[in-house]
């Protein structure tokens, strides 16, 4: 039996419960978790913004050590340190055939599986976003694990599995920020902090962080922000005033709210680029009129998992970490136990802090 954070039903509070894991079957790997990040996507699963089968063990950003492997698994072995990949590509669908593995049609197929049972009543449990990282141990498909990069502390490496890949990819793959360009990042949570660092690595000349909380300014500046703007009705105007009345070249929205997406778009220059990373609900409707779309010539793009291929991007990120260009520890504002996850959700809803990291 291992302890895990179980979501009994959408809208219900998490329960810390004992679960029984099977031995890994063919093509599976059992992992002892070292750490797991608490991501806004986990919160979105609890409130139904994103839907997966329940009851489920949540958590998708994690790293740990292989306990044992099932038949046919050869790329990792017992004792290896690994990073979890919650959205593995199938390699067969149309998106994968185009090289757009982040849009794989079958990436979340494993979330429908029954992977464990509650110890108290034997009820079936699903693995949240494939990997069920909010648990002391988990069993995952072999394609959900990648070798952890050498020279990166395993607890910090957990952040590479979602926040850092997403923030880095938003800058380097989706928006394709060039040296000397100006960037605004909306939302200074875990992903926003990673995005700020990625913009600094890309050589952005001005990096403007935007958030509702004045307390996050120090976090943002440490991550690379050159300027800080408190979100308000005049945010777009303030950003234009910081950029010679032009607007930024690139805006990255990490919140997932209609008003923030619209403001991010308005904050870019004519011909500017807005990348939306935040996951919003169906009720968040963003509107534009046809004339302004023509006049401004701006682009608005969604961004899934940073438009990354974890297998190729993880080694690149690891080199940035080892070289001191990416500071994973700067994303973490709280280190907690499993029991602290509900409190981390509350802090997230209140707009407080960066990434909370569960340490096992």
Task: Report on the architecture of this protein.
- The protein has 360 residues and is α/β, with parallel strands linked by helices.
- It has 11 helices and 18 strands.
- The strands form 3 sheets. Strands 3, 5, 6, 9, 10, 17 and 18 form a 7-stranded mixed beta sheet that branches.
- The chain starts with a strand and ends with a strand.
Spatial shape: globular
Helix-strand pattern: EEEHEEEHEEEEHHEHEHEHEHEHEHEHE
Terminal residue distance: 15 Å
- Computed structural class: alpha/beta
In DSSP terms (H or I, runs of 4 or more residues), the helix count works out at: 11
Number of E-type strands: 18
Profile the largest sheet: 7 strands, mixed
Radius of gyration: 20 Å
Estimate the mean pLDDT confidence.
96
Unreliable sequence segments: none
Q: In what range is the share of β-strand residues? A: 25-35%
- The proportion of residues forming helix, as a percent range, comes to 25-40%
What distinguishing features does this structure have?
6-stranded parallel β-sheet
SSE blueprint:
Elements: E1 2-7, E2 15-20, E3 28-38, H1 40-47, E4 56-57, E5 61-69, E6 81-84, H2 94-97, E7 116-118, E8 124-125, E9 137-141, E10 145-147, H3 154-157, H4 163-174, E11 182-186, H5 190-202, E12 206-211, H6 217-223, E13 227-230, H7 235-241, E14 248-253, H8 258-266, E15 268-276, H9 290-296, E16 299-302, H10 310-322, E17 332-336, H11 341-349, E18 355-359
Helix pairs in contact: 4-5
């Amino acid at each position: 039996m291992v302890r895990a954070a179980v979501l009994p039903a959408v809208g219900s509070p998490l329960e810390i419960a004992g679960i029984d894991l099977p031995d890994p079957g063919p093509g599976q790997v059992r992992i002892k978790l070292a750490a797991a990040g608490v991501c806004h996507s986990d919160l979105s699963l609890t409130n139904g913004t994103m839907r997966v089968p329940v009851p489920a063990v949540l958590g998708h950003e994690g790293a740990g050590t292989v306990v044992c492997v099932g038949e046919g698994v050869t790329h990792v072995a017992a004792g290896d340190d690994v990073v979890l990949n919650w959205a593995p590509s199938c390699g067969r669908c149309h998106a994968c055939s185009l090289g757009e593995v982040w849009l794989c049609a079958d990436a979340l197929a494993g979330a429908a599986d029954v992977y464990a049972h509650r110890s108290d009543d034997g009820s079936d449990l699903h693995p949240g976003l494939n990997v069920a990282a909010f648990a002391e141990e988990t069993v995952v498909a072999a394609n959900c694990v990648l070798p952890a990069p050498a020279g990166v502390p395993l607890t910090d490496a957990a952040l590479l599995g979602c926040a850092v890949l997403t923030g880095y990819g938003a800058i380097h793959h989706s928006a394709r920020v060039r040296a000397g360009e100006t960037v605004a990042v909306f939302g200074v949570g875990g992903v926003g902090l990673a995005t700020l660092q990625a913009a600094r690595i890309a050589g952005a000349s001005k990096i403007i962080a935007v958030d509702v909380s004045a307390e996050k300014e120090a976090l943002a500046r440490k991550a690379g922000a050159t300027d800080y703007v408190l979100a308000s009705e005049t945010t777009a105007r303030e950003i234009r005033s910081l950029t010679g009345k032009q607007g930024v070249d690139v805006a990255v929205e990490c919140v997932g709210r209609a008003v923030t997406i619209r403001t991010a778009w308005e904050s870019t220059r004519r011909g500017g680029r807005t990348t939306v990373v935040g996951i919003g609900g169906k009720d968040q409707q963003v509107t534009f009129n046809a004339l302004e779309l023509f006049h401004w010539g701006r682009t608005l793009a969604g961004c899934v998992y940073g438009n990354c291929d974890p297998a190729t991007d993880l080694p690149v990120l690891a080199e940035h970490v080892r070289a001191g260009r990416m500071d994973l520890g700067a994303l973490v504002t709280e280190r907690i136990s499993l029991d602290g996850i509900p409190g981390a959700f509350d802090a997230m809803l209140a707009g407080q802090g960066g990434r909370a990291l569960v340490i096992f």
